[in-house]
Amino acid sequence: MEQLGQNASVKTITTTLQRDAFIHRNAQRFMTFRAKARGAATYSKRVGALLLLLSLTVCNMPENRSKTGESATPRAANEQPAASDPAAVHRRAVAIDMHADTVQFIVDEGADINLRVAGVQLDAPRMREGGLDAQFFSIWVEPQVYGFKGERAVARADEQIAAIRALAERHPETWTLATTAADIRRAADEGKLAALMGLEGGYAIDEKLESVERYYRAGVRYMSPAWSYSLSWAGSSGDPAGETRGLNEFGRRVVGEMNRLGMMVDVSHVSDKTFWDIVETSTKPIIATHSNCRAIANVARNLTDEQIRAVAKSGGVVCVVFYPGFVEPGWNEKKDALDRDIAPLVQEAGRKAVGRGSARRIARDRVREREYAARLAHVPLARVVDHIDHIVRLVGIEHVGVGSDFDGIQATPRGLSSVADLPNLTLELMRRGYTEEDVVKILGGNVLRVMEEVERK
Ligand SMILES: [Zn+2]
Fold first, then answer.
1. pTM
2. What domains can you pick out in the chain, each with its CATH number?
């Protein structure tokens, strides 16, 4: 979830025939063969469409992509995909997204993400298309609405947790609630989607240490101390208080309790001072669930090279986020200028909105998203991969992952407009020379390693 009221809804799928969009479509079709190499697969039988696609692919894909064409006919059981086939590499990998805000749509709009939902960036069908095995759902409490602590904040978090648990309980053929690395591997083997949870901001722990264990027992496996607003015990990168606020004594005890229980500590959104206090306090690997590099896009939500080195030194992972404002330098300034232009439209939409919870914010965001798509230049997917490259150059392949922030962002890179587009990321990585082993680490292997480390008592 990004900044004040920045929540995405209506997804505008780009229809241009630019290169990224072209790769996107090809990859998406290939991923209808979402048959895990491990077994349990069902092949699409749309051979006619795929033969057409094969010819398009051979004509248009970069040369090292041409082998993807072999996916266009269902493989015999003993036939192994070529090592350089990005679609095959993608579906063999256990893919984990560390951050999406889809729960807001479930609790406030009644979205049933077991089905394809218009206007969200993540649901079960799109996860299947995108070859995503596991999703960490953000349990996000908007402090301006529900309080920085107290009963309402607790209730808002609990409501979201209940929604994710209900999703897995009602659709056990599709979803499984996961809390460990082993759970994720098992789900991937069984062809199920793993649902996990992380708290985005510690408002709902209500300044009580015992709440950390309560959320752990409810299934929450990471927490970022702050979202865009500082709390009494931790500073945020999003407000002036965060400029001088780190962890206080209680905040340090919270981190210690997370370490003890085996809950990952997330540094996305925290202030720099809080970041360094976490580094000093945590005895386990730390993670950034959805942050990029300040060396490329110099915004407070991204990490400096020094911070990326510290995450790596802890054994942790920086998971790159797809929000254009954190991907592309200067994008936020253009967005801010446009925001001033469209402010009357946005306010009007909020006034007219009916419904509970975040309904007003969602209505405002829908206008923002429509206007951003129409009036701001699209950021290419390749720019996201530039951040991955930077992290890899800085600290190696072991410390980078993916945290899309889908359904928490009002604009997406071209070629990454929903989770269904995730194979495009693998295409671009392999185009740049990343091997299958590298891709497996980036898509989820590194996160599994951190989870196992943090789970160890
Ligand atoms: Zn966020």
1. 0.83
2. 19-455 (3.20.20.140)
